Amino acid sequence: MKTRCYILSLLLFISFLPKTSFGQNNYSTISFDFFGDPVSLSFDKSNEISFGDILTQQTLQSFQKTIAAGNSDLFIKELLDYKKQYQLDDWLYYQLIRKTAQHISPKTENYYRYTLYKWFLLTKSGYDATIKTNGEKMLFYVHTEESIYNIPSYIKNGKQYVCLNYHDYGGYIDFEKEKFIEVELPVIGAEKGFSYKITRLPEFSPGDYEDRKLQFNYKETDYQFKVKLNPQIKTIFANYPVVDYESYFNIPLSKATHESLIPLLKKNVKGMNTKNGVDYLMRFTRYAFLFEKDSEVYGKEKRLSPEQTLLYEQSDCEDRAALFFSLVKEIYNLPMIVLAYPDHVTIAVKFNRPVGTPILYNGDKYSVCEPTPQKQDLAVGQLSRNLKKETYEIVYAYSPSRQ
């Protein structure tokens, strides 16, 4: 009788212990480096779901049903905790998800499975994402309310979904010939829209930076710079789509790049009036880099962030406009407008007094500041002759008071 009571008491004691005290053998640790920071995640083996090479609605739904029955709560919590701790914007969080999925199911071993893990991790993190297939290809979409260009999208129930993995198919699919159908894969709580805005870059390790020498001549004086740049910026933006001008013009510089460039520029313009200081920044952007059209370098339109423009050997007018905008905003924080012509993009800045023939916008006068090399050596307030009769659109207006 005493033995029976002891066993019963032991069973009751065990039933009230935290569940995490048992089943520890079900967990494995996934560890990797994320742009200089070590990441460790607790992965439950119940989430190791196989997927073959047969791509149908039934096989996709079977994967979703099986993985949903597993224990992923701790794993997702750790991912979201990391996102919160390091203040990752959605695009950087998606890079974390990509790297996590690569460690669970390497892309080269099973592309379908790798993509499904990305979809699973993103939806379990609360984002509204979908899967489409034509039986051979799998397209992974996410809901966003932002304007995204040059990648496939579709509208469902008034909501826009854009493709996250189009680049995996060479950036070209003939949708007239290949018909894709969305597979119903409901996930409770997956309702958030995805944002492509980047307000913060990772805290890269100092040892990951390289020095790049830049130089240009301003009023018969040679200026030289040694800017710290991180090649991992290329990885972050490798598949970043074409976004609106406001989004990519306001992508910040990483900490070490900022600290190696901005104080030196501020020192060089110290003592100049605002117009001459902006002129200095304009000519730095214009002459410190080689010019090349995106079509010649990448074979397509590619908008570079300000730091990418510093990093790459060549850049076009849009890239230089973004860098010039960033420098003026950082050092003078003046109102600016972005002028988009049919084949050119430039910047106009609002000074206390306009220079040259002003651009009128909302009752204010802005002076053109051309950051891209032209046939003429344009000064502040001068517009290239071939643009004077061209129509333009103001695609972004920056006002410091609205920030």
| Number of structural units classed as domains | 2
CATH architecture of the largest domain: Roll
- Give Rg in angstroms: 26 Å
User: Mean of the pLDDT scores?
Assistant: 90
Q: What's the oligomerization state?
A: single chain
Which of globular, elongated, flat, extended, rod-shaped describes the shape? elongated
Find the count of extended strands (DSSP E, 2+ residues). 18
Percent of residues in β-strands: 15-25%
What does this 3D model show about the protein?
- This protein has 12 helices and 18 strands.
- It is α+β, with helices and mostly antiparallel strands and about 400 residues long.
- Strands 6-7-4-3-8 form a 5-stranded antiparallel sheet. The chain has a 5-stranded antiparallel sheet with strand order 16-17-15-14-18, with helices on one face.
- The model is unreliable at about 1-25 (pLDDT under 50).
Break the fold down into its secondary structure elements and pairings.
Elements: H1 2-15, E1 27-34, E2 37-44, H2 57-68, H3 73-85, H4 90-104, H5 111-124, E3 129-133, E4 138-143, E5 148-149, E6 153-156, E7 159-163, E8 181-182, E9 210-218, E10 221-229, H6 232-236, E11 242-243, H7 245-249, H8 255-269, H9 274-287, E12 290-291, H10 294-297, H11 306-311, E13 314-315, H12 317-331, E14 336-341, E15 344-349, E16 359-361, E17 364-369, E18 393-398
Parallel strand pairs: 12-13
Antiparallel strand pairs: 1-2, 3-4, 3-8, 4-7, 5-11, 6-7, 9-10, 14-15, 14-18, 15-17, 16-17
